[in-house]
Write a structure and sequence with these properties.
alpha+beta; 7-stranded mixed β-sheet; 8 helices; 15 strands; globular
Length: 301
């Protein structure tokens, strides 16, 4: 079961994006849709009943899109590699995802691939679409973390740190900048690795950018119990003032949501009044406390 799930922050386009993405990618479907409750409205400025989150599966992998408002939006610091040997799929994705968006690198032949392009779609979500060898396509969509600004040079360190937190670190490919890169020589220009059974890419930017990690794209971690929640939370937390409702910001500016699986059942169960009490309790938390959520759900919080 997928443990680390990319979460896209949207300003009202969650359903539209989910419909587009599930239409374009094979083995895809829209899953559970949650809506703002009366309690949630107070915290997000939305009307009761509007969509809060959309869960979806894209090419067999889980995503979440959150309607969070205009405060954040995706940027190129986190993009998604699409690795497929299917040239027709590459062409179709490039055409439709690029419509209304912007191109960072045009679809062309590059030293690392015979057919590759990087574009931001109409919602600002960044995709690196590449015709890949079958052996490199075990995971069709791979989150890619680009370390920029003050975090440039931290990509390899972050890879090893995250691997120690989630376990099962397996390096698939490491490539470093050469002497021709000047002060970036020795930094990571491409690192592909597996942790917790999932594939990720990290790399240090080769140029200066005016963006960095933000809640525009976060990684949601589903934990099994309070002990695992506590362990991962304590291992990653770095900015106390950024902590709220299970969200935290780490040493590198990356945003994570540490979410016990049991919480999802409480918030999305059939007893809407009880779920509302649990959700109201969650809004007052930093790290998620499962026992307190259960107490609120049962009417004792």
């Amino acid at each position: 079961m997928q443990k680390i799930i990319p979460c896209l922050w949207s300003d009202g386009w969650a359903e539209e994006a989910a419909e587009l993405y599930t239409r374009l990618f094979p083995d895809s479907a829209i899953g559970e849709i949650t809506r703002f409750t009366q309690e949630g409205v107070e915290h997000h400025g939305q009307s009761e009943g509007t969509v809060l989150t959309v869960s979806l599966t894209l090419a067999g992998q889980e995503f979440v899109i959150l309607n969070g408002g205009p405060m954040f939006r995706p940027n190129p610091s986190i993009s998604f590699f699409v690795l497929t040997p299917d040239e027709k799929l590459v062409d179709g994705l490039w055409k439709e995802l690029g419509e209304g968006g912007s191109v960072m690198m045009p679809m062309d032949r590059y030293p690392w691939g015979e057919k590759y392009g990087w574009a931001a779609d109409r919602f600002g979500v960044n995709w690196q679409i590449m015709k890949a060898r079958p052996e490199d396509s075990e995971q069709t969509i791979v989150p890619a973390l680009m370390f920029t600004g003050a975090m440039t040079g931290k990509a390899e360190e972050a890879m090893n740190r995250y691997g120690s937190v989630f376990g099962g670190l397996e390096t698939i490919e490491l490539s470093h900048y050469g002497k021709e890169a000047g002060d970036r020589a020795g930094m990571l220009n491409h690192g592909r690795f597996r942790m917790g059974g999932q594939v990720f890419v990290v790399f240090d930017s080769g140029v200066d950018h005016d963006f960095g990690f933000s809640p525009g794209v976060s990684l949601q971690v589903l934990t099994g119990d309070q002990a695992e929640t506590d362990r991962i939370w304590n291992a990653l937390r770095h900015v106390p003032e950024a902590e709220r409702c299970g969200w935290l910001c780490d040493l590198y500016g990356m945003n994570w949501q540490i979410i016990p699986r049991e919480m999802l059942g409480l918030l999305n169960g059939p007893d809407r009044e009880a779920a509302g009490r649990a959700r109201a309790a969650m809004f007052e938390m930093k790290k998620i406390d499962i026992a307190a959520l259960k107490a609120a759900y049962g009417g004792g919080g």
